[in-house]
Amino acid sequence: MAVGLDARGPATAEAHAAHRAAAQTAAKRLGIPAPHFGGFADNRMDNVVLLDVIKTVEAFVEEVRPQVIYTHHRSDLNVDHRIVHDAVLTAARPMQGTNVVRILAGETLSSTEWQPLTAPAFIPNVFHDAGATIEAKVAALEAYSGEIRPFPHPRSAEGIRALAAFRGAQSGFPAAEAFMLIRERV
After folding, report:
1. What gap in Å lies between CA 183 and CA 145, rounded to an integer?
2. What are the Cα distances from residue 156, in Å, to 3, 11, 30, 105?
3. Half-sphere exposure at residue 116, Cβ-oriented, CA atoms within 13 angstroms
4. How does pLDDT run across 120-166, given as a tens digit for each residue?
5. What domain range includes position 8?
6. Does this model's pTM top 0.85?
7. 145 assigned to some structural domain
8. CB-based burial of residue 69 (10 Å sphere; 0-12 exposed, 13-18 middle, 19+ buried)?
9. What is the pLDDT of residues 96-114, one digit of tens each?
10. Distance CA 120, CA 103 (A)
11. How many domains does the chain have?
12. Cα 117 to chain centroid, rounded
C-alpha cells in the first residue's frame, strides 16, 4: 500500500479527484492495493506542521504494520518528498515492538537528480530486479498524464526505461530500481 497526496496545482475538487483517480489507475496497472491519501495539498506541505504529517504516517504504519517502508530521498527538489521522508523516519523510529525493519529511499525522476550540489547525493546501494516489471511501471506512470513529459525529459517513458537500464547495468540486471538503505534492523 502507498500513501498518496492530493492534487497539484489549483486546489479544486476536480483537480483533487483527477489526481486521486490517476493514483488509483496506476495502482491497478501495477496490481497493488489502492493508495491511501493523507489529505495534504500537493507541493504545499511546507505550510503544514510536521507533527501533523508524522501523525498521519504513524497512523498508516500502525494500521498496515509494514516490515519494509519505501520513501523518497531526503534531497529531492519536491518539498513534499523531503517532508514525507522526515515524517517516515520519525513515524518508523526503531522502538521495541515496531514491525518496521527496513527503510529504503528511492529516486524520483526530475526531482532526485535535480538536487543542488550542496545536498546529500542519491547513492544507491540496494537494487531490485525490474526486468519483468518495467513496462508495468511505465504504464502506471502514464496514468499521470499531467506529469509525463516528452523525451528527453527524465519523466518520459523513454527516460524511465533509460534509468532502469542504467540501474540494471550498475547491478547486473536487465533493468533495476535503485534505493538507498536508510535504516535496517537485523
Report:
1. 34
2. 23, 25, 18, 21
3. 2
4. 999 999 999 999 999 999 999 999 888 889 999 999 999 999 999 99
5. 3-129+178-184
6. yes
7. no
8. buried
9. 989 999 999 999 999 999 9
10. 17
11. 1
12. 21
